[in-house]
UniProtKB/TrEMBL annotation:
It holds the Pfam family Molydop_binding. SUPFAM superfamilies: ADC-like (SSF50692), Formate dehydrogenase/DMSO reductase, domains 1-3 (SSF53706). This is Molybdopterin-dependent oxidoreductase. Gene3D superfamilies: 2.40.40.20, 3.40.50.740, Dimethylsulfoxide Reductase, domain 2, Dimethylsulfoxide Reductase, domain 3. Residues 28-41 have a biased composition (Low complexity). InterPro entries: Asp_de-COase-like_dom_sf (IPR009010), CT_DMSOR/BSOR/TMAOR (IPR041954), MoPterin_dinucl-bd_dom (IPR006657), Mopterin_OxRdtase (IPR006656), Mopterin_OxRdtase_prok_CS (IPR006655), Prok_Mopterin_Oxidored (IPR050612).
Length: 781
């Protein structure tokens, strides 16, 4: 390379070149005032210990194809083959599955974080391929936000992500809002990554502006430093999972002290009277008093009562991170927060209401400036297969084909899955109870994976097709939740024999008879130019001029903020005149009581916000056996599990294990010390972690990041120790409720002890055993 070339990632824009000694250099874009440290890990893009060099097929599958013993996944070596043979094997498996069991037997797994690029977005590539092939069983919702994704449309009549962007601006909060109450904080680590791309990180500047304006900040949650220190927030430590109880007690105080906004509730909501009967105990005989909530949350009743009075006295805003609803009965957290905000009456006023998804990417950072045009993406034909499964019910689907599950008023039937094709994503990072998933993973006859590196998922596949990394492809990055358009040059050559996902799917489509339909006669570069020109045309229709592709790709990222007008929020227009601007709910109002949800008849999710104790929390009988509540969060050192092998991630570990934070009192009770390697366990599994002591977590709570690549000591053991530190080894794989069936990862109890044995080496950070195709005959069965 003669000059640095720009690339875009989910965590920022960077320039890539090589130093005089050939060492890869990564430099943050000059437009980013607070670049993410994850960018340093891009120097490991071509690390041979992690990248997949050639197509590979599991030995047993290479010999016996779809009749192989699937329990060999993760235990057998891989046979390295050439591309023609690998594609023939994969195409044969797809064809025979369709002929034998139909397209419904194919599960197309993907997740949207593989690339920030618009064309090389892996999720779009695999979905287009499988849809043209005849369809596939698809997933719905996300691991991030599933409970809210299903609940918020019933409450507000709009998409949950769109509702989250209905946030008051920093300036409005600074001018009009006296107080922000965060339930569960708003960690800056989550604000460093964003769907699409991230042109400039400004989250800490927003927080500093709120502090300078004197906005009072309160953090109710089990972790103190889930808010940046600049806010100097008052911390109210509570038991994990008790947020709804506290919210209900706040509403109880507003009602019994006549502090609620009767006029707002009458004009803008429906069903508050039903909810009030529940809160006061008229409906069930149990008033949700501050004393009642204190017993559940361990927050003093007097503190809850005084907080309710503070909230009623001056305009406030309620902040909710995504993580709050990733727990059993997670639907209730967001619903109860909107009920509390409605009782206060600040919704739709400047600086008031609810901040949803606080601290997550640009969710609250758009500051009213939204793109007035569509950004082009790879076209998607309809999926001929109607079968869907909630994304967090993956293991249930594999384990229990033919059984039914309630979901948002529907009854879904789990299909029998014969073939899993995964491209973009690592389910053996983000799913729960990984040992259970590993057992269920043996049920399909075939697992095909397009992957960059030797992740846990790649090692548990039958056919592994090496794909290029984002820095090895030409593309452009843009998103509706960012203000930037960023060129992505091919800053590095493809690693060894890696191919773009587009090239892989095009070659498979040729073998399966629909190549021209998939490619539409375009090369990858022609698709990128076509999508850019479509975006240019869409922008022109909205009065915004963008350069042609050659000028764009040769220039710097484009900051659209100066050209975007400020928009009015739906909830502001609704507050102005709810009759002229009704919400999308059946009543046109905020539905504190939803007749729709009530008529579903779910015992675990009634028609209004309610308290349900989780099966796993510190107030449950199970806490006698497993007395520590494990909270797992998004990492500061990588995006999910991406670049776990990079410098930023590896430097954060303790003797190569993922750190776990614990209160000193809990450590003393177990004779543990800072830096110890500990065994974290329950009856689902066990993992190793490196111990960090801190008083930033309340006693009884332990706290660790997700994303350490799952590395079972014995892949043949159904409850093998994970030697690296993936918390999903022990998390509970149950749905939030019958409404959303989202993940309940943060309802998890464990016990911890010092690890006494010899420390097992990591295997996940070096390649699996690979054998040349010519030596298969000599290799023992």
């Amino acid at each position: 390379m003669t000059q640095p070339l720009p690339t875009a990632t989910h965590w920022g824009n960077y320039l890539i070149d090589r130093a005089g000694d050939g060492e890869l250099r990564v430099t943050p874009s000059g437009s980013d005032p607070d670049p993410s440290p994850i960018g340093r890990s891009l120097t490991a893009t071509h690390d041979p210990d992690h990248r997949i060099a050639r197509p590979a097929v599991r030995l047993g599958y290479y010999r016996d194809r779809e009749h192989s013993d699937t329990t060999g996944r993760g235990r057998e070596p891989f046979v390295e083959v050439d591309w023609e043979e690998a594609l023939d094997i994969a195409a044969g498996a797809l064809r025979s599955t369709r002929e034998r069991a139909g397209n419904r037997a194919i599960y197309g797994g993907s997740y949207g974080w593989a690339s920030a690029g618009r064309f090389h977005h892996t999720q779009g590539q695999i979905h287009r391929f499988l849809r043209i092939f005849g369809g596939y069983t698809a997933s719905v919702d996300t691991y991030s936000f599933a409970a809210a994704e299903v609940t918020i449309p019933h409450v507000l009549g709009m998409n949950a992500y769109y509702a989250a962007r209905q946030s008051p601006t920093t300036e409005e909060i600074a001018r009009h809002c006296a107080r922000i109450v965060f339930f569960g904080g708003a960690a800056a680590r989550n604000a460093q990554v964003n769907p699409g791309s991230f042109g400039a990180h400004g989250y800490r500047d927003h927080l500093a502006a709120l502090r300078a304006a004197g906005v009072d900040t309160i953090n109710i949650g089990p972790v103190r430093d889930d808010l940046e220190p600049v806010l100097a927030a008052r911390w109210i430590p509570c038991r994990p999972g008790s947020d709804v109880a506290i919210m209900l007690a706040l509403v109880h105080t507003l009602l019994t002290e006549d502090l609620h906004d009767r006029a707002f509730l009458h004009r803008y909501t429906v069903g508050f009277d039903r909810f009030a009967d529940y809160v006061t105990g008229r409906a069930d005989g149990e008033p949700k008093t501050p004393e009642w909530a204190a017993a559940l949350s361990e927050v003093p009743a007097a503190e809850i009562r005084e907080l309710a009075r503070l909230l009623a006295r001056e305009r406030c805003v309620i902040g909710l991170p995504y993580a709050l609803q990733r727990a059993e009965h997670g639907e209730q957290t967001y619903w109860a927060a909107w009920a509390l905000a409605a009782a206060l009456g600040y919704i739709g006023l400047p600086g008031g209401g609810v901040l949803m998804g606080t601290g997550s990417g640009m969710t609250n950072g758009m500051q009213r400036r939204r793109l007035p045009f569509e950004i082009a993406a790879l076209p998607q034909p309809p999926n001929p297969v109607a079968a869907v499964v909630p994304v967090a019910r993956l293991t249930d689907m594999l384990e229990r084909p033919g059984e039914t599950v309630d979901y948002n008023g529907r009854v879904l039937t789990y299909p029998h899955i014969d073939l899993v094709y995964w491209a973009g994503g690592n389910p053996f990072h983000h799913h729960q109870d990984l040992n259970r998933l590993r057992r269920a993973w043996n049920r399909p006859r075939t697992v095909i994976v397009n992957e960059i590196g030797w992740t846990s998922t790649a090692r548990l596949a039958d056919i592994v097709l090496p794909s290029t990394a984002a820095q090895e492809r030409e593309d452009f990055a843009a998103a509706r939740v960012d203000h930037w358009l960023s060129p992505m040059r091919a800053a590095l050559p493809p690693y060894r024999e890696a191919r773009d996902d587009y090239a892989i799917f095009a070659a498979l489509a040729d073998r399966l008879g629909f190549g021209p339909q998939f490619t539409e006669g375009r090369t990858a570069r022609q698709w990128v130019e076509h999508l850019w020109q479509t975006t240019v045309d869409n922008a022109a229709a909205a009065g915004i001029t963008l350069p042609d592709y050659n000028e764009f790709r040769s220039g710097a990222p484009i900051d659209l903020r100066p050209r975007l007008p400020e928009s009015r929020h739906v909830l502001e227009r609704f507050r102005d005149d709810p009759d002229r601007h009704p919400l999308g709910t059946p009543s046109g109002r905020i539905e504190i009581f939803s007749r729709t949800v009530a008529d579903f008849g779910y015992s675990d999710c009634p028609g209004h916000p309610a308290w349900f104790p989780a099966r796993e929390w510190l107030g449950s009988p199970r806490a006698q056996r497993f007395p520590l509540h494990l909270l797992s969060h998004q990492p500061a050192t990588r995006l999910h599990s991406q670049l776990d092998y990079g410098a930023t991630s590896r430097e954060s570990k303790i003797r190569d294990r993922e750190p776990l934070r614990m209160h000193p009192a809990d450590a003393a009770a177990r004779a543990l010390h800072d830096g110890d390697i500990v065994r974290v366990f329950n009856d689902r599994g066990a993992l190793l972690a490196g111990l960090r002591l801190t008083d930033a977590v309340r006693p009884g709570v332990v706290h660790m990041a997700t994303g350490a690549w799952y590395d079972p000591l014995d892949p043949g053991d159904p409850k093998s120790l994970d030697v690296h530190g993936n918390p999903n080894t022990v998390t509970h794989d149950i749905g939030t409720s019958s409404l959303a069936q989202g993940p309940s990862v943060n309802s998890c109890l464990v016990q911890i002890e010092r690890y006494a044995g010899d420390l097992p080496p990591l295997r996940i950070h070096r390649p699996p055993e690979l054998i040349p195709a010519g030596q298969v005959g000599a290799h023992p069965t």
